[in-house]
Automatic annotation (TrEMBL):
UniProt-listed InterPro entries: MFS_assoc_dom (IPR024989), MFS_MFSD6 (IPR051717), MFS_trans_sf (IPR036259)
Keyword line: Membrane, Transmembrane, Transmembrane helix
Residue stretches making up the Major facilitator superfamily associated domain: 45-169
Family: Belongs to the major facilitator superfamily. MFSD6 family.
Lineage: Eukaryota, Metazoa, Ecdysozoa, Arthropoda, Hexapoda
Top-level division of the source organism's lineage: Eukaryota
Protein name: Major facilitator superfamily associated domain-containing protein
Species assigned in the record: Timema podura
Length: 189
């Protein structure tokens, strides 16, 4: 039996301490889960940055017209609408982590596909996959981060996730890769 300094039963202090340990453990697990949500977002945003930076250059080198470049954006946007509408049931059915993994796979398929196409119109197939890579996987990341964060940290976590996805990882790696290509191969005339 636990006894206080003054001889009374000290069980209530032990209970309060255990309650604090439990809260710290729950907060640590939530923080760890948010970390594991934000970490996979980094390579996904880098892949998105590569595609956004280099796709139109690739299409121009393949002889695409400006109209085709506009159609690629239209196809990607229209293909994303149904998946945004159905993202809730899809995420509930297969889970947040699995949706993020599927997004990785589709990014790999897109990047590989862009590297082997010879006809610029074939890019429309891979642009339709943007509905999975951008719409569905980012929705899964945002909803999982919201699920794991508390009401006081939700805005900060969402801002951090959006900043990593749309800014911090996307542009520096894209610019660095442009520098490496031009430094290694020189400017194309």
């Amino acid at each position: 039996m636990l006894v206080d300094d003054d001889g009374r039963n000290g069980w209530w202090r032990f209970t309060i301490k255990m309650h604090r340990v439990k809260l710290l453990t729950v907060n640590y697990v939530r923080t760890l889960g948010v970390y594991h949500t934000i970490t996979p977002t980094s390579p996904v945003s880098t892949a998105w940055g590569y595609i956004e930076s280099f796709l139109f250059w690739l299409l121009q080198d393949l002889g695409a017209s400006g109209s085709l470049m506009g159609i690629t954006i239209t196809v990607a946007g229209i293909a994303g609408i149904p998946l945004l509408v159905l993202s809730g049931p899809i995420i509930d059915r297969i889970g947040h982590a699995n949706v993020l993994f599927i997004g990785f796979i589709f990014y790999a398929i897109r990047l590989l596909g862009y590297s082997i196409i010879y006809n610029p119109w074939l890019c429309l197939i891979f642009e339709a996959m943007e509905s999975v890579t951008s719409s569905l996987s980012f929705t899964a990341a945002v909803t999982y981060a919201a699920k794991l964060s508390s009401t006081t940290t939700d805005t900060s976590i969402q801002g951090l996730l959006g900043g990593i996805y749309f800014g911090v990882e996307r542009e520096p790696f894209g610019m660095y890769s442009i520098y490496q290509v031009t430094h290694t191969y020189g400017n194309v005339d």
